[in-house]
Amino acid sequence: MRLAALLLTLLLALPTVSAAREPTPAPPFAVPGLVEAHLTPAHWIDALDEPDRVILTPAQIAAQNARMRAEDASIHRLEALPARIAGTQVRAWIEALSKLPANELFDVHGKPVSRHDLGRIEANLALGALPADQATRYGMVVRRAALRTFPTGLRVFSRAGDTDIDRFQESALFPGDPVAIVHESRDGDWYFVVSERYAAWIEKQYVAEGDRDAIFAWGQRTPFLVVTGATARTAYSPENPAVSDVQLEMGVRVPVVSDWPSMDELNGQLPAAAHVIELPVRGDDGRLSFAPALLPRSADVASDYLPLTEANILRQAFKFLGERYGWGHSYNARDCSGFASEIYRSFGVLIPRNTSAQAVSPALNRLPFDKGDPYAQRLQALREARPGDLVYMPGHVMMMIGHVDGEPFVIHDTSGMSWKPEGSDTLVRLHLNGVVVTPVVPMMTSATTPTIDRLSSIQRIRP
Known about the structure:
- By secondary structure, the chain is of the alpha+beta class.
- Helices cover 20% and strands 26% of the residues.
- It has two domains: 36-52 and 307-460, endopeptidase fold (from Nostoc punctiforme) (Alpha-Beta Complex); 60-263 and 270-302, no CATH class.
- The chain contains ten helices and 26 strands.
- The strands form nine sheets. The protein has a six-stranded antiparallel beta sheet with strand order 19-26-20-21-22-25. Strands 9-8-7-4-10 form a five-stranded antiparallel beta sheet.
- Strand 7 (178-184) and strand 8 form a beta hairpin.
- It starts with a helix and ends with a strand.
- One of its GO terms (molecular function) is cysteine-type peptidase activity.
């Protein structure tokens, strides 16, 4: 009895733990007006009256894409290229891109890049080797690869120590992207290629040259899968490194090998828990072939492009939430315009690569702003904008996701935002550097200029 009484005394002396203890409140967000609920697509979907209403049918999307290819000068119609390309055209493509800046550049260690080194990079363009004309050659990208301003992997920056924005980085291409191969660097390591949305330099090791008709037929094969996650990766395969651990980005379409025998192994695995897909492969001779690969059933994929609805747009956008900002698709990520275009690619919608072209594309439903348009008019347009509408300012794009008490909120891939706390004249700079949710009204581009006054247009992918 004495022992039991002692134990009871000790237990009563311990601190009590309440089953109904209040959860520890989350720390406040640095972004003004942001709360935890804003970081889920469900919050914005639940606020919509008809979140699953189809905005554009597949037939309407096909018609819009055809208009994009016909009317937007930034889009290259690869299938319409002539059998032979004039050297003057190739020179024009290269010289439009590969221009050395006049300002000083710095390497990743913060050291100035010498004019001698820049001269060698420029000489690697080999413009003097351009023929008067040449047969049009086609290829296909076999791995995610950078598109570069010059045929070099050297990363250069405008300021010493500021190594996020590589001034020689343009974009990226993904497995299965078709290209026209129009020139080769002096050192033989790079191609200048023309893709549907960009013309730039790419390392030769990532491009396989092949037959024109076979390349375009691969992109139309059925059945197929569309990557609907931020990324998907094929199964690791030591038996066939060419199709092992291949990264596929949102919106990439790959044909399915539907008749693969269920009892036949592929690269050391039975496909009982994987899709058998077909991927482009580059041979030792640089030629294109196709090989089967395993894509795990756990991958976020669909058997067709997603229906274009506001709910689906929100779900797709939030799959990138928190990803690091990657200028020109660097850091194995994407930038603001790549973020927008890859979301829409998962619906089969084609839009230009860069904000400068996206913001003015005549093939979209555009609401332009003039410099003299008042703040109130711009704000009203944002209050009437719908989820998925793309909001542009010089050099940046944001995607509308909804409104809180009538105030517009966006999701975007951004280096940061500035705002002024109430009662203060001092700008607070937030180094966000990724895909984030922010309100638009508090954003400032300078101490006296609200971001809303800098908006140039709203592009709506809808009737």
